[in-house]
Structures are given as C-alpha cells and as structure tokens.
Design a protein that fits this description.
Helices cover 31% and strands 15% of the residues. The chain is α+β, with helices and mostly antiparallel strands and 95 residues long.
C-alpha cells in the first residue's frame, strides 16, 4: 500500500473494514478524496457519501437537472440572510 495512490488505498481500506464486519451507512471525507470516481466507487459498495467538493471548473455535477461546476452551483443558490454563502449543503448527482 505504501506505493499506491492515497485515493486507491482508501477504497482498499474501506473494503477491508466491510469484509471484517464493520457496518456503516455513510462515508465522510475531506475535499482531497472528493472526486467523482472516488464517490462512485464508494456508492457501488452501498454507502452514501458526505463530502466537501473541490472547487474545479473541470469537474461537474448534476444539480437541479443541469450539469454544473461548483462555482455555478454556488451562484445558483441564493444567499440566506445571516448565513455565509459558503455554508451550503445541497445534494448533487455524480457520474
């Protein structure tokens, strides 16, 4: 594992934990692991994903029926009075 990419090791460790009998409904991680490929691999194991997504114009997600990058999603969501615009939680589709 020492020579593997960190994103690949996460999936290997997750598989080992599930094989050992650990149960979970969600996997939560930071932006470093939040790429669509990683999220799809975790969802294929029957787990939901909670993560902050990377700000990248190259990565798009489906939000309200449209493919958008993170900046476009932020712009589509109205700021709520008294709340930071960046404290935003919205469901998106990946893949």
């Amino acid at each position: 594992m020492a020579q593997s990419k960190g994103t690949d090791v996460v999936i290997q460790l997750l598989d080992q934990a599930l094989k050992a009998g650990l149960t979970a409904k969600y996997v939560m991680f930071d932006t470093w692991f939040s790429n669509p490929h990683q999220i799809v691999q975790i969802r294929q194991r029957g787990l939901n994903v909670i993560t902050m997504v990377k700000k990248s114009s190259k990565i798009t997600y489906e939000f309200e029926g449209k493919r958008m990058n993170v900046k476009q999603i932020f712009n589509a969501c109205k700021k709520r009075r008294g709340r930071s615009r960046y404290l935003l939680s919205v469901p998106v589709k990946v893949g």
